[in-house]
Structure formats: C-alpha cells, structure tokens
User: Fold these one by one.
Assistant:
Number 1:
Amino acid sequence: MNRAGRFAPSPTGPLHLGSLRTALVAWLAARSQGGRFLLRFEDLDPRRSRSEYEAIQISDLRALGIDWDAAPVRQSQRSALYARAVERLRAEGRVYPCFCSRAEIREAASAPHGELPEGAYPGTCATLAPAQAWRRAEVGERHALRLRAEGEHVVWRDRLLGERRGSVDDFVLVRSDGVFAYQLAVVVDDAAQGIGEVVRGADLADSTARQILLQRLLALPTPGYAHVPLVLGPLGQRLAKRDGGATLASRGEPPGVTLAWLAHSLGLAQDAECVASASALVANFDLDRIPGHSVKLC
Ligand code: GLU
C-alpha cells in the first residue's frame, strides 16, 4: 500500500493561517511524492466540535486547491477501535484508573518530579492496589484511565526539528467523561489509515514521545514526523481557532492571494500576488527546504 499523508484538524473553528499553512505543507509533502492524502476530523470533544466548522474547513481547504482521496474520517465514529486499543493495553497491565480531581492534578503536577516535563502527571494513582482501584472504577466512582508509562524515555528524529527526546508521563487515555484522548486516537488512526509521514504544527512536537511509546506498546508502526514551524500573530502570539482572526474569510481577499502569502512564507514563491492553486507549487516543493523558523503575520 502506498503510504499516505494526512491533515487532521479539530472542527472547533475556522482554520487560521497557521493551520492552512500546515495543511498545505502536508498536502505538498504527500503529492510531491505521488502519495495519497487523507482528511480526518478530530472531533472527539463533543462540547467543542461542530459540523458547521467541518464544512467551513472543507470549503477553505478546497479554495486553496487542497484535495483528498477518500471521504473524510471522523474520530467520533471510531470509538470501537479506540476501545480495543485500551483493552489491549489494559490486558498488558499498562492502564490504571485515576481518581484525582483537576485541582489535585494541578497541585501535584506543579511539584518537580525527576525527568518528567513540567505539568506532567506524577503518577499519584499509579500506586493504588490494582484490584481495589478497578473495583472503585467498576462501581461508578468518577475516574479517567491513564497509561502506565513507567517513565519511559523516547528519542526520535524529526525531519524538520532534528533529534528530539522526551520522558513520557502517565497521560490520560480516556477522560473521566468517557471521551477517548487525542493521544490514543491519533495513534490508532495514523496506523489504521496507513500514514507514512505525519506533517503537523510544531505545537504538537512534544506529543510525539507519548505517541511513539503508544505505537510501541500497541505494536503499530511509527511513521516519520515533520513538525512545521508556526505562524504567529503580529505580537508574536500563537494563533488560536477560538480567536477567529487570520482566517481565509477574515482576510477578505481572493484565496489565491492568501495562497501566495503562504507560498512566499514557505520559500516557494517570490512576492507573487496570486497563486491560482496549490497544485502550482508541487513541482518546486521540497519538505527539507522549508524555513525552520516561525513566521509572523504583519
Ligand atoms: N487535531 C489536532 C489539531 O487540530 C492535530 C493533530 C495531529 O495532527 O496530530 O491541532
């Protein structure tokens, strides 16, 4: 099977310029290799995901000439796959219920704890006797399910960021409201969809160690990773979907003009005024040559 590339937005707002730029890079990386490209909606959070946003995201991607080879997949329809993965991890003793409240987690995570990154869960519930803990969970005490990561350390090579490493904490697999966590779903889906290289925003680089550990524990292949530097707002701030700014609609210009800005920011076009479609950029694209720094909107 020809390995695929993908773009996996959460439908929680219109795509901002940073997400559109990442989508463009992911699409160009796949198409310049003659590869397939897939769209996946990461709509696991029912409170924040909306089908109207999916429709806007699809229409904005299309306006730039980004296309995909199969009907978009929605994570909200794939719970059975995620449940199976959790069962498998549980059978290997790698899952435990966690009864900590948010406040307890915040407090515990702010204390220093060895090699784990700041904010990591320090494993408070990992030491509970398993039989008793599972009994509490089964009788309905509110709990999340966490991975027993055993402090494993992961080293990998990111195609754009170089060598990276990270210690994995006991992160959440299933939230206390029953929603499967992004880290689990993304790993199951990237494998199920045959993704050869994950191209996504640099804000997710720190999630990669967790995902590689999960792939190992679930005996799934590890794809390549390329984390694309972010687009920052005029004051150097991160763009957020919820801010609603810096979108195709808010720019109020023909999509070809926005595409020209994106292409220019990637070193793929001189100051072009308009690039008709993403396909015009395929011939000159080389993932290894995109700028390694974030770009600022002016
Ligand atoms: N759903 C994530 C987002 O919208 C992207 C996840 C990924 O590409 O792995 O930021």
Note: Residues 8-10, 42, 186, 200, 204 surround glutamic acid (CB under 6 Å).
Number 2:
Amino acid sequence: MNKGEELYSGKAKTVYRTEDPDALIVVFRDSLTAFDGEKKAEVSKKGYYNAQISKKLFELLEENGIKTHYREMVTDNEMLVDNIKIILVEVIVRNIAAGSITKKYPIEVGQPLEPPVIVMDYKDDSRHDPMLNEDIAAALGLATKEELAGIKKTALEINGILKSYLDGKGLLLPDFKLEFGRRGDEIILGDEISCDTCRFWDKETGNSLDKDVFRFDKGDLVAAYMEVARRIVPEIFE
Ligand code: TMP
Ligand code: ASP
C-alpha cells in the first residue's frame, strides 16, 4: 500500500490517502507539542516508538474483542488503518489522579480513582478542548446519548484490558485519552495509544515514562519512551 494525497497533518501524525478508499496511512512523526501546541519540539525516534507501542496495544485490544482502526504496519513508523470518520470527542479515562484533574479540582496527585473517572472533551485546541456532557455533545451533533453511552462502556473495557496488561510490564496507567470514529454503522477505536496519549508510571519508582517528561521538563524523553517500548515491544530491540 502506498501513500497518496495528504489528507490531514496534526501535531504529531500525518494522514495520507491510499489506493484503497477505505484505508489510510498514518505517519507517526517526531514532532511533539504540549499545552495546545504552545510548547514544541522535534525528538528523534519518538514517532517510531509511539508507532510500535500503538501497534502492540491495538493488537492486544483486537485480541480481546475491541474493534480498532488498526490493520498493519507499512514501515517502522507508518500504520495502515481503516478510513474512519473521527468523532471530535476526546475520551479520557483516569485511574489515578494526575495532570489537569489535580489542577481543576481539590484532588491530590496519586489519589486512586475508583471507579475510574471518565471525562469527555470537545476536540478543539482553539477552544482548549472544553469538557462536554451528553447534552452538549448531542447539541453539537457529535454523537447521540446512546452512542456516547456505548463509547463510555467500551472505554472502560479498554481500560481494564490495558491496566492489567501494563501491570504485568511493571507499569501503572494513571490515565489515557482515546478517540473513536465511525466505520459504516459501527463506532470503533481510532487514533493512537502511545506515550503521547497515556500517562505511564513505573510501578517501582513512580517515574513518568510518557509525555509528562516533555511537558514538565522531567528529563530524557527518548529514554522514557524507549523504556516503555522495551517492556511492551521487546522484539524491536532484538
Ligand atoms: P490531562 O491531565 O492533561 O487532562 O491529560 C489526561 C490524559 O490525556 C493524559 O494521559 C494525556 C492525554 N492527553 C492527550 O492525549 N491529548 C491532549 O490534548 C491532552 C490535554 C491530554
Ligand atoms: N496534545 C496537546 C498539545 O499538543 C496537549 C498535551 O498533550 O499536553 O498541545
């Protein structure tokens, strides 16, 4: 499968059409942004590690009955995916308090959130991704209440699968962000699941092994992403 016309270029990935109208190629780039694009960097190999981590986690979810847009890798950092119509809702699942929830509400970093907290934000950087509820999402024509209930249920199932898998790799999953899209009549998982879109903490040390290293200048970003890759896709280092 070859890259055709560029369809869309975001902050960290570029999407191309292919000869198959139902398939797209996603290129995981080395660009990195935070705080709605205010802070920017280029970090060599970041795209490669994120692509490989996403591939592995999409495969894991598919094996566990979750439908995703993932088809196969085209190159080390290029993924063939279904051409889905992304729903402009960021679904954030939180197991341990970190990041924005600890800024907005009186919750300490590290506080367990049981049951997990799900938040849905409207995906629009120019508006700083404002939080949605079912009524606003329906008024915006993003998805029906029934569809959002289905998305939430799937997000919780995904959380269970990822949490127990990552636990076996010595990683905690404080939170992560998902995006869903439409394939025909179905709503399936899209986007990526990587160190850019999840918080991963080392179980022993509590150290961040994700984009917080970049957001808050916590050290060597590539070393952190490589450590996650080393644990979940060891085969790429053989
Ligand atoms: P937050 O604590 O900044 O709200 O982030 C929650 C989770 O969502 C965290 O795992 C990082 C991820 N995330 C994204 O993938 N994209 C974004 O634009 C933001 C703000 C967070
Ligand atoms: N994804 C957002 C940005 O690129 C925010 C973040 O991840 O912190 O600015």
Note: The pocket of aspartic acid (ligand 2) is lined by residues 11, 33-37, 211, 215 (CB under 6 Å).
Number 3:
Amino acid sequence: MPGATDATAPVSCRICDGDVEEFLDLGRQPLSDRFPAPDDEGEEFFYRLGVGRCRTCTMVQLTEEVPRHLMFHEDYPYHSSGSSVMREHFAKAAQRFLATELTGPDPFVVEVGCNDGIMLGTIQAAGVRHLGFEPSTGVAEVARSKGMRIRTDFFEAATAMEVRAAEGPADVIYAANTMCHIPYLESVLKGADALLTPDGVFVFEDPYLGDIVAKNSFDQIYDEHFYLFSAGSVRAMAERFGFELVDVERLPVHGGEVRYTLARGGARTPTAAVGRLLADERDRKVTDLASLRAFTADVHKIRDDLVALLERLRAEGRRVVGYGATAKSATVTNFCGIGPDLVSFVCDTTPSKQNRLTPGRHIPVRPAAAFSDPYPDYALLFAWNHAEEIIAKEQEFQQSGGRWIRYVPEVHVT
Ligand code: DWN
Ligand code: SAH
Ligand code: ZN
C-alpha cells in the first residue's frame, strides 16, 4: 500500500532533490536518546530506520525524518564531557582555533550543538568572544552555569541572522557531531553565509561513511544521525549552497570521523588533503551502491552472529551485561531483538540515563558501580568507540576472568 511509511516509495534527497535509493532497512526503532522511567506509562515514539543514497549527489541519508523537538529537548541525556578522551580532543580543537583562525582583533566563534560546553570551555578560558547554540536546555544549562555564553535555540538561517545583526560577523562556526543531525542543511548554510566574515570558515566533524562501511559500524545509524557524510557528498553539498570544501582531516574519535572545513566559494585554496580523500573514496568506491549493499550483507551477518552468541551464553547460564547505554546501542538492541532476557542490564556513568530503561527493548540502566558488583561473565561493549579508555580502567574485570564482546567490525570475544 502506498503511504508515508511505504518502504518502496521513492524519497527525494534533502540536499539536491535527486532520487534516494534505499540500501538498508534497520526496522522499527524508538528515539535513541529517550530512556523511559520504569513507571513511565507514556507510549514510546517509533519510526522506520531506512538508509539510502542519492543517485545524483551521493549523500547517504535516512529515508524518514524524526521531528527535531522529539530528539532535542530539556531531557536530552547525552553529556559530551563523560569521556576523558573526548575532553582532550575538544580542548585540542579549541587550541588550534585559538592559534589560527582566532588571532585577529576581537575574534568571535560560534559553536553549533555545544552541549555541556566541552569545547567552548577552552575558548572561554582564553577570554575569546563566543556563542554556543544548544537547543537541549538541560545540557545547555550545564555550559551556561560554567559561565559560557549560550543561546538555547536551533541554529538555522533565521537564528543565525539574528546573531549577525546583534553581534557582528563570526570568524569561525564550528559543529562537532551536530551537522549530521540536521536534515535542513540548506537553512544552516544560509545562516552560515549570513554570519561568517568574508574569509570565515565553517568547520564541522562527523562520523565518516568511509569508516562506517570499513568497520561495519552500522550502529552509527539512528534517528539523530540523519546524514552519513563522505568528502564527495560534502563537497557537492557545499557547492550547491555557495561554499567550497577547502580542507579535510581524518580523526580517530567515535570510530573514525572527518573534520571538514568549508569557506566561501573561491575564498581559499583547497588543500591537497581534499583531493587525496576524494581520490581514495573513488578508489574504494565508498558511495557505490554495490559497496553499500555489501555493507548491508555484513550487517545482517553481525545480527545473526550476535544473537546466536548471546543465546548460547544464556543457555550456558552465563551472565552478560551491556557497557555504555549509547544512542548507538538503540539500533543494535532493536534491530537484533536484544532485551533483558539476553543482557541483564547496561551500566553507564551518566546520571540522566541511570535507573531508566533502554529505548524500545527496556533493558535496565544501572550506575557504573553495578558493573563490578559482582563482575559479569561477559560485557557487551556498546561504547566500543571508547574501548581504549574503558578497557584501560576496567582491567580488573578481565583479570577476574571476564570477557568483552564486540560486534564491530564483526562479532568477537576478547
Ligand atoms: O552523535 C552523538 C554522539 C556524539 O553522542 C549524539 N547523537 C549522541 C551521542 O551518541 P552515543 O550515545 O552513541 O555516544 P557515546 O559517546 O558513544 O556514548 C558513550 C556512553 O557510554 C555515554 O552514555 C557515557 C557512557 N560511558 C560510560 O558509561 N563509561 C562512557 C565512558 C567513556 C565510560 O567510561
Ligand atoms: N558537540 C557535542 C554534542 C554532540 S550531540 C559533541 O560532539 O559531543 C548533538 C548536539 O546537537 C545535541 O546537544 C543537540 O541538542 C544539538 N543540536 C541538534 N540540532 C541542532 C541545531 N539545529 N542547532 C544547534 N544544536 C543542535
Ligand atoms: Zn542529492
């Protein structure tokens, strides 16, 4: 039957209006960052998580859009500062801006999606003029309470123009793990055009399609991650909206990201790194439908292997808990059908997730201390992107005979 949720209905690209061909269906999914309380009687919101690629501009995108106010609001539970590696990563990013783009008289930097101020804290400490846009009022308040200047609003054309009128032009607009959350990028880049100085730059970093496909990290796909960027698709988007891709840098965080720098068309000379990454994407056929369909086959194998392993461990009477109630894990648990019968609880350091239930499958979330009380036989590492940090601090778990289960790039136990 035709209709809004018909899997076969053609979808138009949010960037260029071209045809989007779906290559992966991750099924019925809940909001990835809404953790219901055990006594919560309200119904959860579900949507169909389909992923496609635009035949014209190659942008990989979701085929259904979740309204933004359902995802980003006062109870948004993700606090960026929960990882020491990420704190260091963003301190470095800020220091780099302070040493390069922000050296003129009275420089001004705007961050889109500043969350709890993990990056702006360093800018503020240097006494540089800044403004963070953060629509999720709970995390925004954390940043504001530390003295950072925050506007609790979505960044888009209208709000950016208001800032330009009130505060003058910005030298840098920065967004980490936020641009891929925004379906309406035309409005965002219109806002950037209004707000930036003539030589200003828009720098953003997000999970990289090339890494997602290479590592089979299908859990990077969920409601908030509307786009999976590649250098090719970002270049096409930039050009369509009057910008030019002038630099790219691969980053190791969150399982592999790229930091893209956009400038106004013709304002800066693109670095050699741009040409190299574009050539690498062509060689590896990153956005070819055949590669994306091969990724889909790998994702199905991961699901089958993971469920078989967890069912075997349950039959053997082993205790398995999850580590890190990530947004990513909503995709894994709901796509694979993993509930409290297979994973008894998920431990997490974030107070706003604790004593709640995971989205959709309702696995209890417990504080970090529950992990060692007593240690389980197996821990399913949902926060695999923070593996180094976590495995280093949880050495006692392995010394006590515990073992880690991972599912990217394939299911394996260590
Ligand atoms: O893009 C996004 C990224 C930046 O953050 C957002 N859409 C939502 C969120 O995604 P996520 O939840 O998948 O991100 P993380 O950083 O993988 O989440 C890690 C989770 O694990 C947090 O809930 C904190 C927790 N954690 C923990 O319990 N012990 C993390 C570490 C490092 C730990 O040692
Ligand atoms: N930059 C942080 C937070 C990433 S989570 C980090 O890298 O850890 C994504 C954030 O973007 C959320 O805090 C969400 O509230 C915010 N966000 C979503 N849409 C936005 C928009 N249009 N403008 C500004 N922030 C937005
Ligand atoms: Zn397109």
Note: Residues 289-315 form the longest helix (27 residues).
